[in-house]
Structure formats: structure tokens, C-alpha cells
């Protein structure tokens, strides 16, 4: 089994990972997406979009209860 960066994001199960890849085509393309673009994917709300953005794009820590991006 090939592991993806998406596998390491809490709250992002197989269905949501597949939805993201169906829309963006690759993790590389997803990395260039905005929070609004990520949250437009079915099953991905604004809070989870911030988590994805922080983990993939900015490589920062986030507070999963609030979605707040914390200083790394």
C-alpha cells in the first residue's frame, strides 16, 4: 500500500481523500489550492479545509477543535 500525505491528516478518511483527489487530481495540485477551493469539495467543511491547508501547504500545527492555525 502506498501512503499519501493525506493519510496523516486527522478527520480525513478514505471517502474524503478520494473526493479531494477526484477534484484536484493529485496531492501536488491540492497543495496549490486555497482554503475556499478545498472547502468546496463535497464532504470537506471550512474547518477541515483549514486543517488540510495547514498540514499540506504550510506544514503548520493546527488546533483541531477550533481550526486555528498555531505557530509551528
Automatic annotation (TrEMBL):
UniProt GO BP: DNA repair
Cited SMART domains: HhH1
InterPro entries: Hlx-hairpin-Hlx_DNA-bd_motif, RuvA_2-like, UvrABC_protein_C
Residue span(s) of domain Helix-hairpin-helix DNA-binding motif class: 4-23, 36-55
GO function terms (MF aspect): DNA binding
A single Gene Ontology CC term: excinuclease repair complex
Pfam family, one: HHH_5
Protein name: Unannotated protein
Species per Swiss-Prot/TrEMBL record: freshwater metagenome
Organism lineage: unclassified sequences, metagenomes, ecological metagenomes
